Amino acid sequence: MENYTMEGRTYRYYGQEAPLYPFGYGLSYTTFRYRDLVLSPPVLPICANLSVSVVLENTGLWDSEEVVQLYLRWEQSSVPVPRWQLVAFRRVAVLAGQEAKLSFQVLAEQRAVWVQDWRLEPGTFTLFAGGQQPGQKTRAPSEVLSAQFSVTGTARPLHGC
Fold first, then answer.
1. How far apart (Å, rounded) are the C-alpha atoms in residues 53 and 45?
2. Which of 49, 55, 51 is nearest to 37 (CA)?
3. Exposure of 10 by Cβ count < 10 A (0-12 exposed, 13-18 middle, 19+ buried)?
4. 20/137 Cα distance (integer angstroms)
5. Concatenated DSSP letters of 96-151
6. pLDDT digit string (tens) for 87-144?
7. How much is the pTM?
8. What order do you get walking across the sheet with 118-120 strand by strand?
9. How far is it, in rounded angstroms, from Cα 119 to Cα 111?
10. Which of 1, 15, 16, 127 has the fewest CB atoms nearer than 10 Å to its CB?
């Protein structure tokens, strides 16, 4: 085998074709609402980490758990990258009618791309937060919020940070 690219070999690289059972697939006995997605700072230096917060509200009648998922998308990259990359997830129990504010850290190394070694590149990124993958079609309603942030500086090896 001489071609080690993942293009066409895993659903992360299939393009617009959605997987039959993506990560986080399943049903809930209640409904959740996501709001107040905040990325801080919205413009960060190449080696900095991103702070993320989101509010999850149980709008249904039953106490339940939700798997909150964060995905990262590169808007432009010097090499092929996945449509989006899972960068964090957390199972959260929320009582009926209550809400929880969640905080996450997206590390600089999670933005790295492979170009003969792991490199950080400047550019624009989109972060998605929700109970499923972005664009996933399900019978149970779920929402995915998104927000963009920018990375400034010059490209550098990850070990140079």
1. 19
2. 55
3. exposed
4. 10
5. TT-EEEEEEEE-GGGG-EESSSEEE--EEEEEEEESS-TT---SS---EEEEEEEE
6. 999 999 999 999 999 999 999 999 999 988 999 999 999 999 998 888 776 655 568 9
7. 0.84
8. 113-114, 118-120, 156-157
9. 9
10. 1
Query: Is residue 107 within 8 Å of residue 127, measured between CB atoms?
Result: no
Instruction: Say how far apart CA 116 and CA 100 lie, in whole Å.
Output: 42
Handedness of CA 84, 145, 140, 99 (dihedral sign): positive
* CA pair distance 87, 25, nearest whole angstrom: 17
Amino acid at residue number 2: E
Question: Given 2.60.40.350, 2.60.40.10, 2.60.120.10, 2.40.30.60, which CATH number is that of 22-160?
Answer: 2.60.40.10
Beta pairing, strands 32-40 & 50-58: antiparallel
